[in-house]
């Protein structure tokens, strides 16, 4: 059953990958890429690497590709013109792909890869790959893990430093100020008599006290 | 409790006997899925009625009262109406994606329920990384919105999709950070274990030992982010009927439109269920375990908590005006994320001290 | 496994630097435009603290940490000390330059410190993963720094070129590393080295990987034929950052190459030695010949860097202890010389004016005889004229090359240096024998004047007394080499 599922997912993966390159519409291509990632996650799931599989969906499908689609939809890119050189560059690309395939075969057939004897280890009962991965990351790979975090921080600083522009002439509201405002700052309530007294002259005429 | 679980396994054993292991597994899973999705759909239907009734009362109106006693058959009538309506496809729409969109909203809203526990053992798939699974699956719901917004080939729909993409990405971060706090104190990603952990601790399984009190800021952030993720009031700028008419749903009618609604309400129930499982102790009782009947864990507690949180959803809708878009972004990035980060650091430090209550 | 087993103490300088960089970054939020000097001061304090911590651990024997991911050995500590000096020189020389160009900002300081952190990790990585992340940390910081002056078209173009070619080089390097991993089944350097020497590796695949690694290193060093980015980036980047790219990272690249080739892939010494020879010879010839045709000083210095990298590789190619030590000495002295040369350019530059043409140095002797003399020292040192440090650096490399029996290489290197002397001396000629076009006195802050003078005099001093430094570096290499 696992094998049948593997071939099913693998076929979907390859077809989706082909759609990514061949689709005329960039949004279709991006969506095919989403399918690719999702199917790849399924393949991981088949070898019982559930943490990696779900991380792939969470990060690539859930975040990266959403932003990617956002950009693809917002920008009016003319993909036809980008596509023009496809057949012209095909021989070069094909050669590179062939070389990479050869090298990959070399790696896989090397003594340490040991593919012919490789069997998926049956995880022990109660084995939790998320926990195992966490333990490794925080002990053995502690340094690269922390440095990778620094690397991401640098990426963030770089992105902000290169794009953030403080515009002087924009009008904006500061909600904190808005909330902090008191009624007394905006409205002055004047104490007044509800009724105006009648004219002074009439007063005097009536009473006749202050002449 | 053991007997109950044994009883639960009986159909599986029977099926294994007659169908073989693989087929029995598939059949058993399907049965469990039906048992979850069926009541869920019923819940969705009556949540719409509850919404109209409650908001009606809050606005000193009666709400639907014509169909059936107290309007109880209203959802059925609404459903029939939506099913019978014609589905109109705009001529310039991208037809395939136009129909894929609503389905893509529905699928994650249903699929996420696979790992939600109702009671120990009562869960479709009790997996180790349940929490991550929920996050991954719910984050995919946004594709439906984006696809339908884009495929409709309409300005309003497209604007709605853009708003949805930006909003969901922003609030997902805050939500994820809020969940990290839960993971830290639970030491597990398994939802059943997260609930069980809340039954332990110095207060011995009462409301005091839930995650609610030590993780209060995270609970608030989670629930408010949940409002934003489901595009509910006051974060419903994606629909924004006064600005962009109905956002991504504008071109849909009939059942395709209904799918968006089903998904929205299913997601509301999901967020409430998750909040109840992660912070409010799921099926655990708020009373100390020493009190006889009231202190025992029970599925009804779960229902009560979810119902209360759903009531909050409706209450907020009747109370708050809609956020402006920039204010919404500010809240997500500049308030929620710093709050959660600070709280995670505090909790982490607390856990290392001798005063830790999670040992 | 607990915290104590990680042996965090070996990375005290790095940890201090990281914390300091974060403090600088945070302090910047609370500082307005006028108070950026506070962040600047904090940055210099961070560098001083790091240098102090490095000196504290000087002379200790190699100490591994982080489960063999990291190693603090004399070689890395010495290289790190040089890098800290290099970054500090950049910040002091470039202070007013950066202020006039609107890049005197918190990001400049923070990213410089992160770049330094990357370099330090590159020097101390004992695992392919750590080495690679260190390299990326350095590269990413540098790409962003070069592009920081956003409205400067040349800088943006330089950053783009640097980024694209740098990413390509990183990719090649990573591909090579993955192949070596495939061949040996290990990522940490001692194990790889051991597996290769006892022939437990797939040789064909490992050598494939070696080719990619050498190519990646060639790109990063800027050796011919992978040098295309060097002139454009050096020329286009703000001079302050040209100095950052041109000085301290060369030390990091040396240590990085040492870890990869001399330690991990020591078993393939004949293979990489011949590859490096090709790179070195091409760099020497192309660098020196192309530099003659330049009229822009920064471009000329870029080609001169290429030729200097040829020398550095020559020492490496020898593959002996003395060869590595000579290379190390070369990298150290080149760091100081390059810092001084770019410091001179910034000294003469003003607002809206870059002294990046050779013609801008016309008659400097009449405008300011002291700095003309300083520039003379720098140029003589670069040309390799005796009594200046550049001479001894070249001499040490040539000695190592001759000891391997490759006399023709030594002869070629000397011939190329003679060609090189021509264009360095042309700058001297322009300074002393031409009439000044610009009579304005030099308006530079006293701190950069004093430090630049010290830097240049150090080139002379090290040239007079090179033994001390050379001994220290030789000993560091000796004690750091894998048994």
Average pLDDT value of chain B?
84
Q: Cα-atom Rg of chain B, whole angstroms?
A: 21 Å
Number of helices of chain B: 11
Annotation, overall tally of beta strands of chain B: 0
User: Topology as H/E string of chain C?
Assistant: HHHEEHHHHHHHHHHHHHHHHHHH
Helical run tally of chain C: 22
Structural class category of chain B = mainly alpha
- As residue ranges, the low-confidence spans of chain B are none
Structural class of chain C, by secondary structure, is: mainly alpha
Helical amount among residues of chain C, as a percent range?
A: over 70%
Q: Can you count the beta strands of chain C?
A: 2
- How many separate domains make up the residues of chain C? 1
Rg of chain C, alpha carbons: 21 Å
Largest sheet of chain C: 2 strands, antiparallel
Strand fraction of chain C: under 5%
Oligomer: heterotrimer
Please outline the major beta sheet of chain B: none
In brief, what are we looking at here?
Chain B has 359 residues and is an all-alpha fold. Chain B is 65% helix and 0% strand. Chain B has eleven helices and no strands.
């Amino acid at each position: 059953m696992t094998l049948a599922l593997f071939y099913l997912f693998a076929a979907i993966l390859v077809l989706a990958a082909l759609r990514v390159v061949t689709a005329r519409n960039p949004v279709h291509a991006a969506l095919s890429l989403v399918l690719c990632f999702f199917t790849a996650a399924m393949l991981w799931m088949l070898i019982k690497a559930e943490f990696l599989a779900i991380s792939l969906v969470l990060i690539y499908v859930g975040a990266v590709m959403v932003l990617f689609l956002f950009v693809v939809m917002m920008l009016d890119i003319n993909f036809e013109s980008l596509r023009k050189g496809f057949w012209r560059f095909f021989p070069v690309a094909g050669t590179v792909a062939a070389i990479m395939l050869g090298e990959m075969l070399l790696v896989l057939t090397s003594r340490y890869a040991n593919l012919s004897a490789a069997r998926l280890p049956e995880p022990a009962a109660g084995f939790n790959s998320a926990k195992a991965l966490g333990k490794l990351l925080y002990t053995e790979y502690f340094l690269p893990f922390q440095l990778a975090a620094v690397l991401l921080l640098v990426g963030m600083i770089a992105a902000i430093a290169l794009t953030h522009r403080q515009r002087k002439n924009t009008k904006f509201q500061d909600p904190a100020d808005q909330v902090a405002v008191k009624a007394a700052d905006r409205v002055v309530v004047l104490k007044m008599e509800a009724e105006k007294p009648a004219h002074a002259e009439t007063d005097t005429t009536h009473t006749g006290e202050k002449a | 409790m053991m007997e109950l679980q044994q009883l639960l396994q009986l159909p599986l054993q029977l099926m294994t006997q007659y169908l073989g292991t693989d087929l029995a597994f598939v059949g058993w899973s399907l049965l469990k899925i039906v048992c979850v999705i069926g009541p869920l759909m019923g819940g969705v239907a009556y949540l719409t009625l509850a919404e109209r009734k409650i908001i009606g009362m809050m606005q000193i109106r009666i709400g639907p009262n014509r169909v059936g006693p107290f309007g109880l058959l209203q959802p059925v009538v609404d459903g029939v109406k939506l099913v019978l309506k014609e589905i109109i496809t705009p001529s310039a729409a991208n037809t395939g994606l136009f129909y894929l969109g609503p389905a893509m909203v529905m699928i994650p809203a249903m699929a996420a329920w696979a790992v939600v526990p109702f009671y120990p053992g009562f869960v479709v798939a009790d997996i180790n990384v349940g929490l991550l699974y929920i996050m991954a699956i719910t984050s995919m719901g946004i594709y439906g919105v984006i696809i339908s917004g884009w495929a409709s080939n309409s300005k309003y729909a497209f604007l709605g999709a853009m708003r949805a993409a930006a909003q969901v990405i922003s609030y997902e971060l805050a939500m994820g950070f809020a969940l990290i706090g839960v993971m830290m104190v639970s030491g597990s990603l398994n939802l059943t274990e997260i609930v069980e952990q809340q039954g332990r601790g110095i207060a011995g399984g009462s409301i005091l030992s839930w995650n609610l009190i030590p993780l209060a800021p995270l609970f608030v952030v989670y629930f408010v982010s949940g409002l934003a993720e489901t595009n509910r009031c006051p974060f419903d700028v994606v629909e924004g009927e006064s600005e962009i008419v109905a956002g991504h749903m504008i071109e849909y009618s009939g059942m395709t439109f209904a799918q968006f609604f089903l998904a929205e309400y299913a997601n509301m129930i999901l967020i409430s269920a998750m909040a109840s499982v992660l912070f409010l102790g799921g099926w655990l009782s708020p009373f100390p375990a020493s009190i006889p009947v009231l202190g025992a864990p029970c599925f009804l507690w779960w229902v009560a908590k979810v119902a209360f949180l759903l009531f909050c959803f409706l209450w907020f809708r009747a109370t708050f005006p809609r956020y402006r878009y920039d204010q919404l972004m500010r809240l997500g990035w500049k308030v929620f994320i710093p709050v959660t980060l600070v709280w995670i650091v505090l909790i982490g430090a607390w856990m290392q001290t001798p005063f830790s209550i999670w040992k | 496994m607990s915290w104590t087993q990680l042996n965090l103490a070996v990375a005290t300088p790095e940890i201090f630097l990281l914390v300091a960089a974060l403090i600088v970054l945070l302090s910047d939020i609370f500082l307005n435009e006028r108070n950026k000097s506070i962040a600047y001061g904090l940055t210099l304090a961070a560098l001083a603290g790091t240098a102090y911590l490095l000196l504290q651990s000087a002379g200790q024997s190699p100490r591994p940490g982080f489960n063999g991911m990291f190693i603090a050995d004399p070689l890395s500590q010495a290289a790190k000390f040089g890098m800290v000096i290099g970054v500090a020189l950049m910040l002091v020389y470039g202070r007013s330059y950066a202020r006039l160009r609107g890049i005197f900002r918190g990001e400049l300081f923070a990213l410089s410190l992160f770049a330094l952190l990357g370099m330090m990790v590159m020097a101390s990585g004992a695992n392919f993963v750590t080495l690679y992340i260190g390299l990326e940390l350095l590269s990413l910081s540098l790409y962003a720094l070069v592009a920081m002056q956003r409205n400067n078209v040349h800088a943006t173009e330089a950053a783009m070129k640097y980024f694209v070619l740098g990413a390509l080089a990183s990719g090649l390097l990573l591909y090579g590393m993955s192949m070596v991993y495939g061949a040996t089944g290990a990522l940490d350097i001692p194990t790889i080295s051991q597996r290769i020497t006892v022939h437990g590796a797939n040789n064909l695949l490992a050598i494939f990987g070696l080719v990619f690694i050498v190519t990646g290193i060639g790109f990063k060093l800027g050796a011919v034929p992978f040098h295309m980015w060097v002139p454009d980036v050096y020329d286009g980047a703000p001079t302050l950052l040209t100095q950052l790219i041109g000085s301290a990272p060369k030390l990091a690249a040396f240590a990085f190459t040492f870890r990869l080739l001399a330690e991990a892939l020591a078993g393939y010494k004949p293979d990489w030695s011949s590859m490096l020879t090709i790179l070195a010879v091409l760099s020497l010839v192309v660098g020196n010949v192309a530099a003659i045709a330049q009229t822009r000083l920064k471009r000329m210095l870029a080609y001169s860097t290429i030729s200097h990298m040829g020398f550095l590789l020559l020492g490496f190619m020898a593959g002996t202890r003395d060869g590595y030590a000579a290379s190390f000495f070369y990298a150290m002295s080149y760091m100081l010389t390059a810092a001084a040369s770019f410091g001179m350019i910034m000294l003469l530059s003003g607002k809206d004016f870059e002294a990046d043409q050779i013609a801008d140095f016309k008659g400097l002797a009449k405008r300011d005889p002291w700095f003309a003399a300083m520039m003379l020292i720098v140029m003589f040192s670069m040309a390799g004229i005796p009594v200046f440090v550049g001479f001894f650096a070249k001499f040490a490399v040539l000695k190592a090359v001759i000891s391997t029996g490759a006399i023709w290489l030594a002869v070629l290197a000397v011939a190329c240096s003679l060609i090189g002397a021509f264009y360095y001396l042309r700058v001297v000629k322009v300074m002393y024998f031409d009439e000044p076009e610009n009579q304005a006195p030099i308006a530079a802050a006293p701190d950069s004047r004093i430090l630049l003078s010290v830097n240049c005099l150090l080139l002379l001093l090290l040239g007079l007394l090179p033994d001390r430094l050379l001994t220290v570096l030789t000993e560091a290499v000796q004690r750091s080499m894998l048994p």
